[in-house]
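TA notes, week 10

Several of you asked for a full example with nothing omitted. So below is the full record: structure tokens for the whole chain, then the designed sequence directly under it. When grading your own attempts, check the secondary structure regions first.
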């Protein structure tokens, strides 16, 4: 089975140094059922999404090839795409010293099925669904940190030139406690996407618009 490895080719543009040292991409891009190759001369990057440690191929019923997301079941532990079964793994080879960050884009959709036959769906943030509890619903590797309201998770380490590093970014997630009443029952599904960003270490301020000393 082919692994959905996202590797996107970037041209080295003489007029724009930033484009030669920053790589941002989403794992779920798929072209003609073949992995997309990335060879920038600066980084070689791959990122895999796994369910029960089996790579997602893009052929699964819970993958949307049009909107390009994995739909996770957040309420039924026996479901094949249950939220706590997900794992995100990345490998980066740096030809120049590099910094890494990633962010998650998750859309929580709560559907109520009423005994009258009516169905309603609302789209809310995880904090809203959990009545204001401020927590991130995915288990992020402790080697990453956040800062302020910045949605990115930053790898608290430097990838030296010539080094290859493999890390699990996310290992499982937290379900939503659905309700069943005399009038309705609930289901919650999550549209899940993850974005990885790799940049030359001495260019983080210019490319990421962050403090140059944020890792000090």
């Amino acid at each position: 089975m082919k692994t959905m490895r996202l590797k996107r080719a970037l041209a080295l543009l003489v007029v724009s140094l930033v484009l030669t040292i920053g790589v941002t991409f989403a794992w779920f891009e798929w072209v003609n059922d073949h992995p997309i190759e990335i060879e920038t001369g600066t980084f070689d990057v791959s990122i895999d999404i796994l369910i029960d440690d089996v790579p997602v191929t893009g052929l699964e019923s819970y993958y949307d090839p049009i909107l390009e997301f994995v739909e996770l079941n957040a309420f039924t532990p026996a479901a094949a795409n249950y939220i706590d079964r997900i794992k995100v793994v990345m490998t980066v080879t740096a030809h120049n010293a590099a910094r890494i960050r990633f962010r998650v884009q998750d859309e929580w959709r709560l559907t109520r099925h009423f005994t009258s036959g009516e169905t309603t769906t609302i789209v809310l943030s995880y904090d809203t669904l959990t009545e204001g509890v401020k927590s991130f619903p995915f288990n992020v590797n402790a080697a990453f940190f956040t800062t302020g309201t910045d949605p990115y998770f930053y790898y608290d380490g430097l990838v030296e030139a010539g080094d290859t590093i493999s890390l699990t970014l996310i290992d499982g997630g937290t379900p939503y406690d659905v309700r069943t009443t005399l009038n309705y029952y609930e289901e919650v599904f999550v549209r899940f996407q993850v974005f990885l960003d790799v940049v030359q270490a001495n260019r983080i301020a210019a490319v990421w618009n962050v403090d140059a000393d944020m890792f000090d």
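The mean pLDDT is 80. Use that as a sanity check on your answer.
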